[in-house]
Every structure is written in structure tokens, then in C-alpha cells.
Input
Amino acid sequence: MKIYFLLFLLFLTTNLFAQKTVNDYYNESKDLYQLGKIDSALQGFLTIIENHPKNQRICSTLQHISHIYFIQKKYEKKIEIDKLILDKYCYDFDSKRFATIDLSIDYELIKNYDQALHYCSLYDSLFYNYFNRNFYSPLKYAYFYQKLNQPYVALEKLLPAVLVKPIRECSVFVSEDSSLVLDELNKLLILNNLNKKSLIRKLDKALKLIYPKTVFKYDGFAVEYFFVFLNVEIPIPKRYISEKFNLEDTILKIKKSEFYRLINSF
Output
């Protein structure tokens, strides 16, 4: 009996120490991932979320799974994981921020432009006040609305950027050359079949009606200047405004811009 009891204790002890912890699975999977063995890494990460969904490693585990599915081009599965990151398991600011970005890219990759646009807009509505600017450039919004066969809405989304250098579109940095916006504007003006001869008259009239407006910034309130062209409010960057606002001086500077030259060339 004593021998059987000792064997039982040995068996129990061996299994106790042999049992893997969440950290074991996580670290092994992470090592496999870094070695490029993504299929094996995925199995380890999936084991964690299936058996330990409340563990503190769950958020970073989901992020690794999301990236693996991206590498494997399994975008529908990636969408499921990114939604779990955004809506259920991850609570920190950056995780939610990047999950929202990823979902827009995910849906764009499967050509679901309506949902891609939704997550672009969601990102800006959630995080605009933090960054004090839209993350997605008007170029991206114009692109989505064209894909949705709404060229006039695309034009409306693009116009506020005609004097402003693009910041960024989705995960790809773009050139600060404003010709990117103006090339797209030229295309949209033609696509919308607008009366070309009246455009410059409308723009000249709009410039004479430049107006100030107090806007909220993350560090307080500020006075900025705008004009309305084709029923769209267009912000005027500081480089067009003298230290003490002068309407004629501002109009003269805008008339030297590539945007004005483009409209005048129609």
C-alpha cells in the first residue's frame, strides 16, 4: 500500500508541476510568433482566450491573434477579434483607438465600404477632442463616399481640406503636398458635372464674405476664419491670416493658392 501511495503522490506532483499556466502559453506563443511560426503561435493564443477569457493577458492575446489573422489574410476572423478588443475585453485608450482604426481597414479590405466609413467616423467622433483634429483625412472620406456612389457627398467631405495640408489617411502617411487633395477635387468637380463657368464667380463672392467664428480647442477657445463655397464651410489656415485680420490681404493670399488657380482654370 505504501508503494502505491508514493506512486500516487509522484503522479499528482508531476501533473501539478507539468500543468501550463496562462503566462506559459502566452510566452511560448509569443516566442513562436517572433520566430515566424504563426500557426503554432495562433493555437497557443487561442487556447488562452478559450480557457482563460478573464485573465489579465486577454487583451494583448487578442491583439496578437488579430495581427496573425491579418498576416493570414483572414479578414473576417480578424474583424471578429477586433470587435472583441473594442467592445468587450480591452479598456485602455490605445487599445480601443487602434481597434477602431483596424476595423475600418478590415472592412475596406473586404470591400465593405459602408462599415469602413462607419469606423472612420466612429474614430473621429470618439477621439476628435483628444487630438483636436480628425485622424482620417478628407481624402479618405471622399474615397469611401465615391465607393458608395455618392460623389457629391465626397465633394462636400473634401472641400474643407482644399487649403489645409492632409494629415494622414488610415494607417498610411501621405505626402503633405496639397496637390493630392486638389487632384481629387478636380476629379470630383468634373464627376458632379458642376457649371464650371460659375465656380470662380461663386468663389470670389464667398471670399468677400469671410467671417470669424469662435471654436473650441483642447486648450480653450480660439477665433478662426471661414468662408462658404458650394454650401460647404471651409476653414482658412493661419498662414493666410495676418496677425491682425485684414480681409483684402487674406483674399489676396488665397488667390495665390493652388486651390484658387484650379477653380479659376475651369
About this structure: The CA atoms of residues 113 and 148 lie 7 Å apart.
